[in-house]
Amino acid sequence: MDVGGYRIVSLLAESRLGRVHLARSASGRPVAVRTVPARLAADQAFRERFRREAAAGRAVTGRYAAAVLDAGPDAEEPWVAIEFCAGPGLPEAVATHGPLDDAELGALGAALAEALAGVHAAGVPHRDVKPSNVVVTRDGPKLLGFGVAKPVSAESLAADGRALGSPGFVAPELLAGDVRPGPAADVFALGAVLAVAATGRGPFGSGRGPEVLSRTLHEEPDLLGVPGAAWPWFIGRCLTRDPAQRPSVAETLAWCAGRAVTPPWWETEPVADLIRVQEEEVTELLAWAAEGAEATDTGDPYAAAAGLGILGALGTAQREQPTVSAAAPRDPRIPWR
User: Fold this and answer.
1) Where in this chain does the record put each Protein kinase domain (predicted)?
2) Is-catalytic flag, 128?
3) Predicted TM-score (pTM) of this structure
4) Which of 2, 43, 102, 128 is flagged as catalytic?
5) Whether 239 and 216 share a structural domain
6) Helix (H, G, I), strand (E, B), or coil: what is residue 282?
7) Rounded to whole angstroms, how far apart are CA atoms 195 and 190?
8) How far apart are the first and last CA of the chain?
9) What pLDDT, in 10s, does the model give residues 126-156?
10) Quick check: is 334 in a domain?
11) Nearest to 187 by CA among 148, 227, 230, 240
């Protein structure tokens, strides 16, 4: 089975929003191909949004942002091809490695800030920075999650037609409906990601979405366990409710890079070993496909990749996570507009 000239190798993830496949290009390069069901593409507003976001994604460059390689917005089932990132998702990598220390946080923060700089240079905010949208590869963390539209109802559109983000990582000004998503909101989300990497928990707790959103709006972030004295201060700046008081992406990059050391934590055991195992598994699947075997696409969406680490890269990282929008269920403690 081919999609846009890419040979489908294995189904990695499936949701109501579509499917994510491991595929190979004509040159044998591993690629992640995401397809959207025709029933969603029948909505012309969605198809146009898909076209715009795929084009914006292709304009994003940088070492730490997963590249959008190609797209078919006019196909019966629209598709987008994204650089395949072999490695564990950030939650799995941190669980394997343990909470990050001062220098390790610096390396992660610098990589993600550099990725965001590339996204913003393309003229778009990311809007959904979160741990499950980060894959840790041999070349460092890769930020995913842009360049692919998600269907939203007319009642759930933000000011510019997008869902607002994920509970625990969406900036408070977006919840209050004060401003359009922008770089400051991505800095807020990056601060929350760093807090998770340092402590293993979200700075606004867990539980039902409305509860997390209420804490985001009305409570101070929980940074207990963030290492050192400087990191709680800096992450606290990223998570301040006033977007004008947050550091810029450039300031974040410089601050984090000044605390990173080499080699970075993803090049050391046990994370490096986990990455190698997953690279080998991808290589085996591609070799299997090159020998002419039929791509597996069964009722079990993970059948061909059962037990493979690549599920950490795209099965987990790209499986749909809850997002919130202007039409999220009302909570009396949240001033929805």
Assistant:
1) 6-266
2) yes
3) 0.84
4) 128
5) yes
6) helix
7) 9
8) 46
9) 989 999 999 999 999 999 986 555 544 332 3
10) no
11) 240
